[in-house]
UniProtKB/TrEMBL annotation:
GO molecular function terms listed in the Swiss-Prot or TrEMBL record: acetate-CoA ligase activity; ATP binding; propionate-CoA ligase activity
Keywords, ordered alphabetically: ATP-binding, Ligase, Lipid metabolism, Nucleotide-binding
Domain annotation AMP-dependent synthetase/ligase: ranges: 98-530
GO annotations of cellular component type: cytoplasm
Stated name of the protein: Propionate--CoA ligase
Similarity field: Belongs to the ATP-dependent AMP-binding enzyme family.
InterPro entries: ACAS_N, AMP-bd_C, AMP-bd_C_sf, AMP-binding_CS, AMP-dep_synth/lig_dom, ANL_N_sf
Domain AMP-binding enzyme C-terminal: 585-663
Residue intervals of the Acetyl-coenzyme A synthetase N-terminal domain: 30-89
Species for this entry: Nothobranchius furzeri
Catalytic activity as recorded in UniProt: acetate + ATP + CoA = acetyl-CoA + AMP + diphosphate; propanoate + ATP + CoA = propanoyl-CoA + AMP + diphosphate
Keyword Nucleotide-binding in annotation: yes
């Protein structure tokens, strides 16, 4: 499962200071603890559980499960019989027991530079208790589902923690999703209340969130589902009283004076303020409700396996699934993965650039960091606004030590060269992380060499909404990286308690160097428990194909040293003349060319080979696509992978169709490759105009 020893040619990439002071164990100690976590999870996780408060202790097996559909219903249970409250452990414990009340929980950085707010653990606890009482006053009780549709503001964290404080189940919907997507998720989880905001800016673009929320609620009503209450946060409006007027015209926000800055801690650029429609029968103002709410609220003690939250997958590969996570196991797992994967230290300033609307934001902005008493940056804006140096400006401003972002963002910023990065010092950085997709070699090397100046280890984390937290990942200062050509690839080890295996199409476990389906043989505390309201879909999706295993849906290879390499989604694999090809591998080969900024590869039916390879490439600024470049790219793929992987078609793509979370919608690219105009639901596309352009640029020979 893990290498017997670190390969001799491996070296550690990172400062010696980090290695000396790291929480994470040495490689040999890592091996010893890993074996304990797999063979005796009760002892391993039980020791970690002692760091948290339990109203009552567990009575049964620490971790019980069935992964085999042929032996009965699939289930996972952790610490059954124990009771606790995750909000109490994240806030009350830190304020009252660990004496961290005055420590900063969040540095909030708004869309506009200078738009900022600092919130301590004590202040966060007070706000959460107040809003918990607000929810209770609206009839929300333990087990009720609450939909949250908000921008990246501190109040989003307040809303989710208030839910879990009273035992309600939050269902957060990414604020970039459409009204239809919000309606679908509200109805599927049968939410009793919606929390939203008037609007927000993403760069220069205004998102009128309240209009979208109203449209979603109307769609719910049209389908016979009524939401009685919608709580609206004033984020852009200058005055809560003005918010409740349905006829107030848009206005230019005047730059606040110094007194307003002292009162609010926020300074905003003058942007048009949206007109906010108001339905007095449904809408309630967040600020007015908070004014009269007590800042004391006893937590609701919950069973270990009580629902914590529902989070829907993005829907880029099919109908969204409501992934359900539960209280105790998720708390233990996110706290532990955060502490070890990022080598958290008490004086760290941690920044995860994800949106809380995704699992990364749940686990590694809210739950994991707060469980460790960490200080985090919470960022509302874009990496390119007001200029392409924004992220590095923020790193220097807050002295960020641990930085966690997506390969999509890295590739985007690479296009603009080194100068926007190198004009900032970045000396505070100690660990760099990536999340969301396999990172291509060129992006990895740029991130490591330019952003981290070859002194910060890169933790390239593999996990899913379903896993709750990291499952395959390096540990900084413990698991070594390979120098030379392999250093730029996505290698990983299993995290504690995680037992990976690689299966062939027949479900047989492969030993040694191999490639096939990535599965897990036993659960870890943070794994999902079901698909909300559809346990059969849960069993069919993750356990039916290979009984006895959790099936990730990803391909994976293992090298001679025992390192795991994620090759991409199985549905992004191509069968060309009987050879299984990874689209991620083809894309990496294309992006290694100096002219290519980003690439995507999909399959297209072929009468002889079964499938042919159709590739889309986005070039770096100022470069032109021509036959010479096309020939160079085909040669590069052939040389990197082999003749079997030579693309049949390469299309110039000034832009790629992506969801608002940055994921490429390969389903749409397959349609374009086949010249099929029926694209299905593309409401999650960030920019639908890209599709028309791609159809116009189709390769002429691909009829």
């Amino acid at each position: 499962m893990i290498p017997d020893k670190a390969p001799k040619e491996d070296v550690f990439h990172g400062s010696e200071d980090l290695r000396r002071n790291a929480h994470v164990p040495s490689f040999e100690k890592y091996k010893e603890l890993y074996v304990q976590s797999v063979e005796n999870p009760a002892e391993f996780w039980g020791a970690i559980a002692k760091d948290f408060f339990w109203k009552s202790q567990h009575t049964g097996r620490f971790l019980d499960y069935n992964f085999d559909v042929t032996k009965g219903e699939i289930f996972v249970k952790c610490m059954e019989g124990a009771t606790t409250n995750i909000c109490y452990n994240l806030l009350d414990l830190n304020v009252h027991e660990r004496k961290l009340g005055d420590k900063v929980a969040f540095f909030w950085e708004g869309n506009e530079p200078g738009d900022e707010l600092t919130v301590t653990y004590r202040e966060l606890l007070q706000m959460v208790c107040q809003f918990s009482n607000v929810l209770k006053s609206q009839g929300v009780k333990k087990g009720d589902r609450v939909s949250i549709y908000m921008p990246m503001v501190v109040e989003l964290v307040v809303a989710m923690l208030a839910c879990v404080r009273i035992g309600a189940v939050h269902s957060i919907v990414f604020a970039g999703f459409s009204a239809e997507s919000l309606c679908e998720r509200i109805m599927d989880s049968q939410c009793s209340l919606l929390i939203t905001a008037d609007g927000f800016y993403r760069g220069e673009k205004l998102i009128n969130l309240k209009l979208l929320a109203d449209e979603a609620l109307q769609k719910c009503r049209d389908k016979g589902f009524l939401i009685q209450t919608c709580i609206v946060l004033k984020h852009l409006s200058t005055d809560p009283e003005a918010l409740v007027s349905s006829h107030s015209p848009p206005a230019k926000r005047a730059c606040p004076d110094l007194e307003q800055k002292k009162q609010t801690g926020k300074v905003r650029k003058a942007h048009p303020v949206p007109q906010v429609p108001w339905n007095p029968d449904v809408d309630l103002c967040w600020h007015m409700l908070m004014k009269g709410a007590s800042d004391e609220c006893e937590p609701e003690w919950c069973e270990s396996e009580d629902p914590l939250f529902i989070l829907y997958t993005s829907g880029s590969t099919g109908k969204p699934k409501g992934v359900l996570h539960t209280v105790s196991g998720y708390m233990l797992y996110t706290a532990t993965t955060f502490k070890l994967v990022f080598d958290h230290q008490p004086d760290d300033i941690y920044w995860c650039t994800a949106d809380i609307g995704w699992i990364t934001g749940h686990s590694y902005i809210t739950y994991g960091p707060l469980a460790n008493g960490a200080t985090s940056v919470l960022f509302e804006g874009l990496p390119t606004y007001p200029d392409v140096s924004r992220m590095w400006d923020i790193v220097d401003k807050y002295h960020v030590t641990k930085f966690y972002t997506a390969p999509t963002a890295i590739r985007l910023l690479m296009k603009f060269g080194n100068e926007p990065v190198q004009k900032y010092k970045r000396k505070s950085l100690k660990v760099l992380g990536t999340v969301g997709e396999p990172i291509n070699p060129e992006a990895w090397l740029w991130y490591y060499s330019v952003v981290g100046e070859k002194r910060c280890p890169v933790v390239d984390t593999f996990w899913q909404t379903e896993t709750g937290g990291h499952v395959l990942t390096p540990l900084p200062a413990a698991t070594p990286l390979k120098p030379g050509s392999a250093v730029s690839k996505s290698w990983t080890f299993p995290f504690f308690g995680v037992v990976p295996a690689i299966l062939n199409e027949s479900g047989e476990e492969l030993e040694g160097p191999s490639e096939g389906y990535l599965v897990f043989k036993q659960p870890w505390p943070g794994v999902m428990r079901t698909v909300y309201g559809n346990h059969q879909r849960f069993e069919t999706t993750y356990f039916k194909k290979f009984p006895g295993y959790y099936v990730t849906g990803d391909g994976c290879s293992r090298d001679k040293d025992g390192y795991y390499w994620i090759t991409g989604r199985i549905d992004d694999m191509l069968n060309v003349s009987g050879h299984l090809l990874s689209t991620a591998e083809v894309e990496s080969a294309l992006v290694e060319h100096k002219a290519v900024a980003e690439a995507a590869a999909v399959g297209r039916p072929h009468p002889v080979k079964g499938e042919s390879l159709y590739c889309f490439v986005t070039l770096k600024d100022g470069l032109a696509f021509n036959q010479t470049l096309e020939a160079e790219l085909k040669k590069q793929v052939r040389e990197k992978i082999g003749a079997i992987a030579t693309p049949d078609y390469i299309q110039n793509a000034p832009g790629l169709p992506k969801t608002r979370s940055g994921k490429i919608m390969r389903r749409v690219l397959r349609k374009i490759a086949c010249n099929e105009k029926d694209l299905g639901d593309i409401s999650t596309l960030a920019d639908a105009s890209v599709v028309d352009q791609l159809f116009q640029n189709r390769c002429c020979s691909a009829v």
